[in-house]
Amino acid sequence: MLFLFIIAMVCVQRLIELWIAKRNEKWMLDKGAVEAGSSHYPFMIALHASFFLSLLVEVILFDRAISPSWQSLITLFLLTQAARIWCLLSLGRFWNTKILVLPRAEVVKKGPYKFIRHPNYLIVTMEILLLPLLFQAYFTAIVFSLLNVAMLSVRIPEEEKALMKVTNYNEIFLHAKKDSRI
User: Fold this and answer.
1) Where is the signal peptide (predicted)?
2) Which 8-state DSSP code applies to residue 137?
3) 3-89-171-161 Cα dihedral, nearest 10 degrees
């Protein structure tokens, strides 16, 4: 019962995020944004949908119980959810599930983006690991963690290339590298 409640809550959260992403996409496209990485986007959607399907099947079919370490895992999961919201709020209208880049836009360097270039991808990586571990779904945890690494090895370079091409991304991060050497 707890499993279905948590999965339902995460699915509702994802649907809300997709609504926000669609609204932000319209705003950005109206402002002249360009999309990059559209060829891998359907695979990313398939990966995330398959993750939830695999988690449901593994937990229900194999009657997985909640982990003995559930208190630590749920705490970490809730912290990742707070961090996810922090990312979303920090990017504001620039947050999206697609790679949409607004030419000549200033790169966001606030919130978690002050400390790490792609905090949302770290959060997704943590979720893909923590949710299955919470219910001892080790197959899903391992397989989808590996698939996520493969996806991010395509997505992050694509996103950085797009940002470097039409924003001040190079300037901001080259400047940050020089400052860190002082």
Assistant:
1) none
2) -
3) 40
Q: Which of 109, 116, 145, 114 is nearest to 128 (CA)?
A: 145
**Cα–Cα distance list, 109 to 122, 127, 167, 170, 176 (Å):** 17, 24, 13, 13, 11
From CA 141, how far away is CA 92, in angstroms rounded?
30
Other Cβ atoms within 10 Å of 176 Cβ, number:
12
Q: What domains sit in the chain, N to C, each tagged with a CATH number? A: 31-181 (1.20.120.1630)
DSSP state for residue 167 in the 8-state scheme: S
Amino acid at 141: A
Which residue has tokens 């939830």? 52
**Which residues, listed in sequence order, are joined to residue 36 by a DSSP beta bridge?**
99
Cα-Cα-Cα-Cα torsion 145, 151, 152, 157, nearest 10 degrees, comes to 160
- Reported as a single tens digit per residue, the pLDDT across 66-118 is 999 999 999 999 999 999 999 999 999 999 999 999 998 888 999 999 999 89
Nearest to 99 by CA among 145, 150, 170, 39: 39
Gap between the Cα atoms of 160 and 133, Å rounded? 31
For the entire predicted model, the pTM comes to 0.89
